[in-house]
Design brief:
single chain; alpha+beta; seven-stranded antiparallel beta sheet; 10 helices; 24% helix; 36% strand
């Protein structure tokens, strides 16, 4: 308790005698701060403020203020106050607040009102207000009016996480996924059994279940660590396990989420420092089912890699498309001269492929073009028959040709001389066909 009215009926500090040794009857005197009655878990111990004798009436401008330090920031989804069973002890107007910071000397804190109401909110002797999860370390109850008028009577103030889970599942279940940094305390002699412990930053535990709510229980103690909790990929809270005041180790409900929808949910617990994080059990309703939790971090890595590949591929395709279709962009990248050369090549007419039937004729023309001019046959050679084809005259015709001149000689003898001289030119004409052989 950080703050409450100083004027308490019977005094704030009460001395009690305590028996130390039952055999000898030795006793010891113990001084108790009656503010602690509000957080001792006993509704029979009551804090009663002074009344009468000029005590001012409790009002909204002059409320009774009660401030409690939870010693650590945690998730809170309910706030309650219990009063004494007496007609003059009811609270008729109140306000409940939560803060993450508070200065006891100045009384300044970042207070957030989570509930307010009147006497109609009582169920029995208790006012219980539920709300969505709120992170906080400090609780403040403002009592604005009571049936007693000038005094208030409180038995207990409470707040925290209210769980409605029934199934209790060990954190060492094989259906949970854990990174290598998590160890089972059964293998560690210095730690109590029944926990999964991590003492490094960024160690991960994954729980997958089909249901509507889940609760997480862990050990708290001096110097213990901190973990973030994610539900379905969204930050749902921070678990602070450091008691900060030398308290002995204790198991507590550290996180609770409800109304999640009756479907599959994934809960991640990720350590934030090297302090001990000791997860004990988790609770889910009887209607819920625990599902084998996969290595979602590997799946996410593959999904991210695939997404990056698709983006890079699309970028490459886009750049290629721009290079092909946007001339100005090509000129900026490669230079105008290079692009002009490429464009001139693209504009050259393509040689049409010739049909197979035309190929032999084209080949002959090419061969003729390749022959030297001297080898081409002359017009005379074209008209003249090749020598190879000429048939040599047979022997008999030669004999006949040799005999033919003899006949004229005989004729010449019988004829006059003038007639013989006239026939000589005819012999020369017969010899004329032999001249082409000399040319050859």
């Amino acid at each position: 308790m950080l703050k409450a009215p100083e004027k308490i009926h019977g005094g704030r500090y009460v001395k009690q005698t305590m028996v130390v040794d039952p055999e000898t009857g030795e006793t010891s005197e113990l001084t108790i701060d009656t503010w602690s009655y509000l957080i001792d878990g006993l509704t029979g111990s009551v804090l009663h403020t002074e009344y009468g004798g000029g005590i001012p009436t409790i009002t909204a401008e002059n409320p009774h203020e009660f401030v409690i330090d939870l010693q650590r920031e945690q998730s809170i989804n309910f706030f309650s106050v219990t009063t004494r069973n007496n007609v003059n002890s009811y609270i008729t107007s109140y306000e409940m607040q939560i803060a993450t910071t508070y200065d006891a000397e100045t009384g300044i804190g970042n207070w957030k009102t989570v509930a307010e109401g009147d006497r109609n909110d009582y169920k029995g002797l208790t006012i219980l207000k539920k709300f969505s999860n709120v992170n906080g370390r400090y609780l403040r109850l403002l009592v604005k009016s009571t049936t007693g008028g000038t005094f208030s009577v409180l038995a207990e103030i409470d707040a925290g996480i209210e769980s409605q889970t029934q199934q209790v599942i060990s954190s060492s279940s094989t259906k949970l996924y854990t990174t290598k940094g998590w160890k089972n305390t059964r293998d560690i002699a210095s730690e109590p059994n029944g926990y999964m412990i991590a003492q490094k930053k960024n160690e991960k535990m994954v729980v997958k279940f089909h249901g509507q709510s889940i609760a997480l229980y862990a050990a708290t103690g001096e110097g213990y660590g901190t973990a973030k909790v994610y539900v379905d990929g969204k930050r749902a809270g921070t678990v602070v396990l450091d008691s900060g005041n030398g308290d002995r180790e204790a198991r507590k409900l550290v996180f609770y989420a409800e109304n999640l929808g009756n479907k599959e949910h994934t809960v991640e617990i990720i350590t934030q420092n090297s302090g001990k994080v000791m997860m004990n059990v988790l609770g889910i309703p009887y209607s819920a089912n625990l599902v084998n939790a996969p290595n979602i971090y590997m799946e996410r890595g593959l999904a991210i890699s695939l997404a990056v590949f698709i983006v890079l591929f699309a970028a490459v395709v886009a750049v290629l498309a721009v290079l092909v279709f946007v001339k100005g962009f090509r000129e900026k990248i490669f230079g105008s001269k290079v692009i002009q050369k490429l464009d001139s090549r693209e504009k050259k007419p393509k040689i049409a492929k010739k049909k197979p039937s035309e190929k032999p004729a084209a080949a002959q023309q090419e061969k003729q073009a390749e022959q030297p001019a001297a080898e081409k046959p002359t017009a005379a050679e074209k008209t003249e028959k090749p020598v190879k084809k000429e048939k040599a005259p047979k022997a008999e015709p030669e004999k006949k040709a040799a005999k033919q001149p003899e006949q004229p000689e005989k004729a010449e003898k019988s004829k006059p001389k003038g007639q013989a001289e006239q026939k000589k030119p005819t012999q020369k004409k017969a010899e004329a066909p032999a001249e082409p052989k000399k040319k050859k």
